[in-house]
TrEMBL record:
<dbReference type="InterPro" id="IPR036291">
    <property type="entry name" value="NAD(P)-bd_dom_sf"/>
</dbReference>
<protein>
    <submittedName>
        <fullName>Nucleoside-diphosphate-sugar epimerase</fullName>
    </submittedName>
</protein>
<dbReference type="GO" id="GO:0006567">
    <property type="term" value="P:L-threonine catabolic process"/>
</dbReference>
<comment type="similarity">
    <text>Belongs to the NAD(P)-dependent epimerase/dehydratase family.</text>
</comment>
<feature type="domain" description="NAD-dependent epimerase/dehydratase">
    <location>
        <begin position="4"/>
        <end position="234"/>
    </location>
</feature>
<dbReference type="Pfam" id="PF01370">
    <property type="entry name" value="Epimerase"/>
</dbReference>
<dbReference type="InterPro" id="IPR001509">
    <property type="entry name" value="Epimerase_deHydtase"/>
</dbReference>
<dbReference type="InterPro" id="IPR051225">
    <property type="entry name" value="NAD(P)_epim/dehydratase"/>
</dbReference>
<dbReference type="GO" id="GO:0008743">
    <property type="term" value="F:L-threonine 3-dehydrogenase activity"/>
</dbReference>
Length: 315
């Protein structure tokens, strides 16, 4: 039987994407993998294996033994953590992607999915409605690794016909797991504080606009892209993807409609400089045109959904 391998499955994106893949293909077809055994409890609906993607021998054995035909490669060091460990972030983000692309070439895999990020943009990029094609001079190691990764994806598609597909996610907001060290994490943490009845200490300025997306939209976009006919996927570096653009003051106002006594204070830290180098909003017209992308959630619809469901969710 052909299998789908998810690398870094226990993270913020992986825990929800792996569930959707299991619902679509069946839990026996999906192999969730992550660094340690502790993650196993999240995956009672599909198979789970411990796999450090830097252990290339073990990864290659698994791909061969299980007849893996699709890989979703989600393991990465994210933006804020990457700034604390730049060389480690570069090694993990680049070596793992090149290894996965090599596996796809060698074993003629059907498809590979690898996420990029709005971190590929930089201070000289147009900030409003950032176009698909424009100046990209990322100034974080995370952004540099994503930009280089995009070039490698296109290279493997053109030279070796590897069917690799990618999205430049904006900040992803979900309530089913805790975020993994990104600059947009505040927009997840703020809901936890509102529900706990605590004041929120925001590490970005109140007017710091960033492109964001609710997790169900990110999952929909990923699966829509992966299920699109190959000839519709015209961009093989990574697609711009857009849903909601908001600042901390906007998400605060949206939460106030449900929790009128909620309080916030703003104490920008090193993450403000990262946020300042990223776009305010994104033009995703190629994704709309090529494979019909359209988000379902705006800010208030997302807030309502999170505040209704988060209190009943157990980690
Ligand atoms: P996350 O940090 O929550 O999850 C990453 C997972 O990878 C973790 O479970 C971690 O244990 C695992 N991992 C780390 N090193 C590994 C290794 N050597 N071998 C195997 N697994 C390893 O990250 P996320 O938010 O789920 O992001 C997933 C992907 O989406 C990443 O490529 C990230 O760059 C991209 N992305 C995320 C966002 C966002 O806002 N969350 C935005 C843009 C792009």
């Amino acid at each position: 039987m052909e299998k789908i391998l998810v690398i870094g499955a226990a993270g913020q994106l992986g825990s929800e994407l792996t569930k959707s893949l299991s619902e679509l293909y069946g839990g026996e077809q999906v192999i969730a993998t992550d660094l340690n055994e502790a993650a196993k409890s999240k995956f009672d609906y599909c198979r789970f294996e411990v796999l450090d993607i830097m252990d290339q021998e073990a990864a290659k054995d698994l791909i061969k033994k299980e007849n893996v035909k699709q890989i979703y490669h989600l393991a990465a060091v994210l933006s804020a953590t990457g700034e604390k460990k730049p060389l480690f972030a570069w090694d993990l983000n680049m070596d793992s992607l090149l290894f996965v692309l090599e596996m796809a070439r060698e074993f003629k895999l059907d498809k590979v999915y690898w996420p990029s990020s709005i971190a590929v943009f930089g201070p000289n990029t147009p900030k409003i409605n950032t176009p698909q094609y424009c100046v990209k001079e990322p100034n974080t190691v995370y952004g540099i690794s994503k930009q280089a990764g995009e070039r490698w994806c296109e290279y493997y598609f053109q030279k070796y016909h590897v069917d690799v597909r990618s999205l430049r996610y904006p900040g992803l907001i979900g309530y089913k797991s805790l975020p993994g060290g990104g600059t947009t994490d505040y927009a997840v943490d703020i809901y936890h504080k509102a529900i706990a009845g605590e004041k929120f200490n925001c590490f970005l300025r109140e007017d710091s606009y960033l492109p964001m997306m609710y997790m169900p939209d990110a999952i929909k976009a990923t699966l829509d892209l992966m299920h699109a006919p190959s000839e519709s996927v015209k961009i093989r570096s990574s697609y711009n993807l857009s849903a909601i653009s908001f600042a901390p003051k906007d998400i605060y106002q949206s939460i106030l409609k449900h929790y009128p006594n909620f309080e916030i204070e703003y104490n920008p830290d090193f993450r403000q400089a990262i946020a300042d180098s990223w776009p305010d909003s994104i033009d995703d017209s190629p994704a709309q045109k090529d494979w019909g992308w359209k988000p379902d959630y705006d800010l208030d619809k997302m807030t309502k959904d999170i505040l209704e469901n988060l209190p009943n969710f157990s980690f």
